[in-house]
Amino acid sequence: MIQDLKIGIIGSDVRQSIVARELASAGATVYGYAVTEEEGINICSSVKKCTSLSDIIILALPYSADSRYINCPDSEIKITDFFNSIAEGKLVLAGKTDEYARRLCNERNIKLTDYFEYEELTLLNAVPTCEGALELAMRELDITIFDSKSLVLGYGRIGKILANHLAMLGSDVTVSARKSRDRTLAVINGHNSCDISEIQKRISQFDVVFNTIPSLIFNRELLEKTPNNTLIIDLASRPGGVDMNTAKAMGKRVIWALSLPGKVAPVSAGKIIFSTIMKILEEEGFL
Amino acid sequence: MIQDLKIGIIGSDVRQSIVARELASAGATVYGYAVTEEEGINICSSVKKCTSLSDIIILALPYSADSRYINCPDSEIKITDFFNSIAEGKLVLAGKTDEYARRLCNERNIKLTDYFEYEELTLLNAVPTCEGALELAMRELDITIFDSKSLVLGYGRIGKILANHLAMLGSDVTVSARKSRDRTLAVINGHNSCDISEIQKRISQFDVVFNTIPSLIFNRELLEKTPNNTLIIDLASRPGGVDMNTAKAMGKRVIWALSLPGKVAPVSAGKIIFSTIMKILEEEGFL
Amino acid sequence: MIQDLKIGIIGSDVRQSIVARELASAGATVYGYAVTEEEGINICSSVKKCTSLSDIIILALPYSADSRYINCPDSEIKITDFFNSIAEGKLVLAGKTDEYARRLCNERNIKLTDYFEYEELTLLNAVPTCEGALELAMRELDITIFDSKSLVLGYGRIGKILANHLAMLGSDVTVSARKSRDRTLAVINGHNSCDISEIQKRISQFDVVFNTIPSLIFNRELLEKTPNNTLIIDLASRPGGVDMNTAKAMGKRVIWALSLPGKVAPVSAGKIIFSTIMKILEEEGFL
Amino acid sequence: MIQDLKIGIIGSDVRQSIVARELASAGATVYGYAVTEEEGINICSSVKKCTSLSDIIILALPYSADSRYINCPDSEIKITDFFNSIAEGKLVLAGKTDEYARRLCNERNIKLTDYFEYEELTLLNAVPTCEGALELAMRELDITIFDSKSLVLGYGRIGKILANHLAMLGSDVTVSARKSRDRTLAVINGHNSCDISEIQKRISQFDVVFNTIPSLIFNRELLEKTPNNTLIIDLASRPGGVDMNTAKAMGKRVIWALSLPGKVAPVSAGKIIFSTIMKILEEEGFL
Question: In chain D, which among 211-270 make CB contacts under 8 A with chain C?
């Protein structure tokens, strides 16, 4: 029962405040540090107070911005100090954890779960990511999406939604993917398709390119064939799909759009984290 | 035949440059002032040179920003002086003309046609207007369009496209219109509908409201029922649908979004003006 | 108040039974003849009993199939006899009334309202009409709608929905309309467009044609250019848009699809009649 | 090069004729038996002549309807006799082959490839399958898809397209799937979702159910909760998802819709087989 749970949330941005609010209204006893004051949330005067009162502690996404300090705007808390202050046996839920955090928790017998690695979050985040990409394209292009020619590289969860959004707004969409299966799916869904190997020949036709493939697609050779006017929005996580230095030197229009959900729709992104955490709590037997 | 036409374009912004380019590539002899230099466009050193060489002269949208000077960034040309310099019998195409311009042209026996009043332009402009409204909503909201609750006031050409765009992106859309016919059409197109008289009761449910009705809908009474968090995007032309002073005083979130096409998609907006001008030239027997 | 109304329904098909059921569950006192027995419906042993007990009488759509007898499966009641048996001052709601019925009611001081002429019904009927047309096309074609080339003639309420349905299922849709405004709207909605005058040249490209224009489009000349394999579905009411005799003689594939709502979705069609009747009762001050 | 290939097609229905036509117009030398006569197709007087002249032989889908005779309308050719008549080393492409055919080919050193097992065909067939299911629903239901409540069981390639089609036509769609991932995907795509375990409680709400899960979902228990009026369309291959005997005994409305592509859109189905065969020929190094 969620009513039995004491959950501490260490705030970072809007998303953590939303997580706190949603947990409180779901019935949990919520202790918050650096989150928005609201009915049902017990604001704590220190991180230590917050964690000591709670059985489950939720850190931000990412849990640390620099691998030294906990991601928390109001104070400087070293990662080591933070985990040292947590009693054994407690559960910490955190985003984008690293080897360092995992080792510390292991030594201290703290249970650490990375909610960023849950498929639920990955899937649900596709929606704000695609809307963010669309917003960027609308802002940067001096033409409408309607009647534009767009290329979507990759046809996974983001490529599928994005291609569909673009088509619904009237863009002439081409999907490029390595796998024959993905190209066939794109055709079934009403898009044009082309093999990755054909991009070089066709790149000059497109007004805007969205890359979702996390490997170097836009190398010097392809960039040379890309018109300066073509907008490239790279949605692939590190190392990204564009040789950025070369692209900039050549004067290409590239936007590397990382972590869009928290930026373009922090409230929705917070709710997605909340719903992922609920799923984890369920799986872990807390609910 | 377009090849027989000598057309002068007085530049203002990107749109006029696009009109010049498209006319040139359609085959017209184009004289341009304050437009981007490009192959096929004869750049003139003065407005007078440009108009004297041309049989048809195209002014910007709007033709004047202040009812005193011609809308042209590079020089100060009084409206009177401009029309005095045009030979009798020539055709001037201009946007948002007023009584003053019409009188001057009438006296001087100049034919004046306002392309902004053509249905072709009004209809085609609905697309960039809706994309601009969508972009604004995406930028301002801290939630995604997906899963949002949106209200579209009015179900004319803009309301129809906008409601459809929002629904395609996953918003739960309600259309409010005075006419029973429009509400029925909205239902047929898959939206919720409500009578304008019910808005007061329901306004607190919506995350975002798009107004397309050009009369005072958001008066003090309705604004009082509108949550501070609800975003109002007013797309209605002057005087708009929101009592702005009261709304601001109350701390409501209102954006009065006028003339979106030229702002959000100037190249598409330019092509729309071009295609309207072609239609006018056809109707007037030039093509 | 609907609770105060005594309404008699003379059955014809499923639709009238649905009207009876919906009126009963809305709270009216319902007398039915030749409608399905159901809770809340008082089944009468004769038409006369049914009409004498009721203040408002609802006849079928059409009210008569042959202009001599009332449309009612179970007995032969002449139109004259029917109206003669109705007391003065009562309201009769009927579908597709004619001069004859109007004259009889006028003489007898009976109020006659034709619900088939209400825009509400016309608009709502567009949905089952379009689904019926789609079903016909799916049944008759040996190809899928997906990837087919379809032509929609006319862009009114039916043309708009049908073109949209076809596009959503992956057809490459062209809309042909006389009015420039309609062709522009079709383009804005993502379809191809062509002037009616161009059909002759282009007709051979289409797998299926849906006509919604109530005037002779497919004359001998156009039929001669139409491939025998092309399916023509004529949705236009009498006299229809196809020269049927010539088309048949030439071996063309034409389906004249009239009155689809009652045939393909009688329950939905009945609900549409019900909702139109409610609107009429409201306008007439009964509700 | 396709021009170098000699391909024999043993006809069964429209699909094989389409395969023959497409191969011929792609440039292959085509020998046909029991296929439609057309330019570029060399019609053979016997199966033996057809196979002896060809290097590659294409049998129908399924290659045999009874596991004894080759699927070919015009003559009775035993499977053994057929394969015995084929010279060693030739390639036979056939649909829905069985252990028997594979063993015979193995013994005779004939290369046998089952095109029905190719993902290309499976994916592309999803389109005519979904359109066929939609057509069935439209034909059987006395309501429109618009405003109906539909349940799609399973969210694989068919469930995804079908749910989307239904939603586009205005149905209120619920997707039920075992995997949490699939339910989340359905939500992202704008549908309602529910766990398979909840169906019993909710089944009475739906007008129509489409099953795509190939295991017994509609057992006696679930059938007892299913209204007699609810239409069940079972798209799952053998053994299907419905206990048919029990369903019939209970008077439920169930349609077991197998092999829809060849039935509802044989020309499209033929083109899909053709495009799969081209992919196989490419992979096998023939093109």
Answer: 264-268
B101/B99 Cα distance (integer angstroms): 6
Q: What is the dihedral of CA B17, B19, B20, B21, to 10 degrees?
A: 90
- Report the gap between the CA of A211 and the closest CA in chain D (Å): 20
Specify which residues A175 forms β-bridges with: A152, A193
> Taking CB atoms and an 8 Å limit, are D184 and A120 in contact across chains?
yes
Q: What is the mean pLDDT of chain A?
A: 96
Please report the pLDDT score of residue B157 as a whole number. 95
The residues, ordered by sequence, that sit 6+ positions from C29 with a Cβ below 8 Å of its Cβ are: C3, C5, C6, C7, C42
- Give the pLDDT confidence of D109-139 residue by residue, as tens digits: 999 999 999 999 999 999 999 999 999 999 9
Cβ(B241)–Cβ(B214) under 8 Å? yes
Comparing C-alpha atoms, which of C224, C275, C265 is closest to residue C22? C275
Mutant choice from A165, A185, A193, A268 vs D, greatest count of D C-beta within 10 A: A185
Give pTM, 2 decimals.
0.96
Contacts by B235-240 with C-beta closer than 8 Å and gap 24+? Answer: B235/B129, B235/B133, B235/B158, B235/B162, B235/B210, B235/B211, B235/B260, B236/B154, B236/B211, B236/B212, B238/B214, B239/B214, B240/B211, B240/B214
- In this structure, the number of other CB atoms found within 10 A of the CB of residue A35 comes to 26
Using DSSP's 3-state secondary structure scheme, residue C216 falls into coil
In chain D, what residues touch A279 (CB-CB under 8 Å)? 180
Question: Residue B188 in 3-state DSSP?
Answer: helix
Q: How confident is the model at residue D243 (pLDDT cuts 50, 70, 90)?
A: very high
Tell me: pLDDT of A150 over 90.
yes
d(C-alpha D237, C-alpha D213), whole Å: 9
Secondary structure letter of residue C78 according to DSSP: B
B279, B271 contact by CB (below 8 A): no
Please report residues of B whose CB lies closer than 8 A to that of C124: 184, 188
Q: How far apart are CA D122 and CA D96, in angstroms?
A: 12
Mean pLDDT of the residues in chain C: 96
Q: Residue A227, preceding bond cis, omega within 30 degrees?
A: no
Signed CA dihedral, A65, A66, A72, A74: sign only: negative
B69-118 per-position pLDDT tens digit: 999 987 789 999 999 999 999 999 999 999 999 999 999 999 999 999 99
Q: What residues 157-216 of chain A have any CB closer than 8 A to a CB of chain C?
A: 170, 188, 190
Alpha helix (H) residue ranges in chain D: 14-26, 47-53, 79-84, 99-108, 119-140, 157-168, 180-188, 199-202, 220-225, 244-250, 260-264, 266-283
State pLDDT tens for residues A178-222. Answer: 999 999 999 999 999 999 999 999 999 999 999 999 999 999 999
Residues 6+ apart with CB under 8 A from D29: D3, D5, D6, D7, D42
Whether D111 and D101 have beta carbons less than 8 Å apart is answered as: no
pLDDT in tens, D244-271: 999 999 999 999 999 999 999 999 999 9
CA nearest to C211, candidates C125, C153, C282, C273: C153
Across the range B259-278, mean pLDDT stands at: 97
3-state secondary structure of B40: coil
Residue C110 has pLDDT above 90, yes or no: yes
Which of A197, A182, A180, A185 has the alpha carbon at shortest distance from D279? Answer: A180
Of A142, A168, A265, the CB nearest to B168: A168
Long-range (24+ apart) CB contacts under 8 A made by A106-110 are: A108/A83, A108/A84, A110/A83, A110/A86
Section B240-259 average pLDDT? 96
